[in-house]
Automatic annotation (TrEMBL):
<dbReference type="InterPro" id="IPR014290">
    <property type="entry name" value="SUF_FeS_clus_asmbl_reg"/>
</dbReference>
<dbReference type="GO" id="GO:0005829">
    <property type="term" value="C:cytosol"/>
</dbReference>
<dbReference type="InterPro" id="IPR000944">
    <property type="entry name" value="Tscrpt_reg_Rrf2"/>
</dbReference>
<dbReference type="InterPro" id="IPR036388">
    <property type="entry name" value="WH-like_DNA-bd_sf"/>
</dbReference>
<dbReference type="Pfam" id="PF02082">
    <property type="entry name" value="Rrf2"/>
</dbReference>
<dbReference type="GO" id="GO:0003700">
    <property type="term" value="F:DNA-binding transcription factor activity"/>
</dbReference>
<protein>
    <submittedName>
        <fullName>SUF system Fe-S cluster assembly regulator</fullName>
    </submittedName>
</protein>
<dbReference type="InterPro" id="IPR036390">
    <property type="entry name" value="WH_DNA-bd_sf"/>
</dbReference>
Length: 154
């Protein structure tokens, strides 16, 4: 099963909610708004701040705000920030593989991984916020390309 980490999932939720709020917002406020435990919100915000997704403001009126609009943040970029590069197997994108030369699938996973990554890059957090089905044709093209690649689209 392909599954996002809980932190990547929370990061998307937190960023979308942050994008819906005016001005700066505190970690406890985001926790109350999203239902994500406050220590987890703080951990996610620290990671997102370090990756340039959010800006922090210190002081009595401090908090967090988006560094750029939701429309400019892709789902893929958030996953990568929280979990590292999107890779379905160890051998994707030239990564290490114990079987290497003897594996008949060597290189095949790259195309599948690319299709998934490209699809996720085409979906912005604004699409997610709006529950915008308009992103689906772009995503569907990636999935159709994937189906063709694995022989189910013919």
């Amino acid at each position: 099963m392909l599954k996002l980490s809980r932190l990547a999932d929370y990061a998307v939720v937190i960023l979308v909610r942050l994008g819906e709020m005016e001005g700066v917002t505190t970690s406890p406020s985001l926790a109350a708004e999203t239902g994500v435990p406050e220590p987890t919100v703080a951990k996610v915000l620290k990671a997102l701040s370090g990756q340039g997704f959010v800006l922090s403001q210190r002081g009595a009126k401090g908090g967090y705000r988006l560094a750029r609009p939701l429309a400019e943040i892709s789902v893929a970029s958030v996953i990568t920030a929280m979990d590292g590069r999107i890779a379905l197997t160890a051998c994707v994108d030239g990564g290490g593989c114990d079987n290497g030369v003897s594996c008949s699938l060597c290189g095949s996973w790259d195309a599948i991984n690319h299709a998934i990554r490209t699809t996720l890059e085409g979906i912005s957090l604004e699409n997610m916020r709006l529950n915008d089905k308009g992103f689906m044709p772009r995503a569907r093209n990636g999935v159709q390309g994937l189906a063709t690649l694995i022989g189910e689209g013919t």
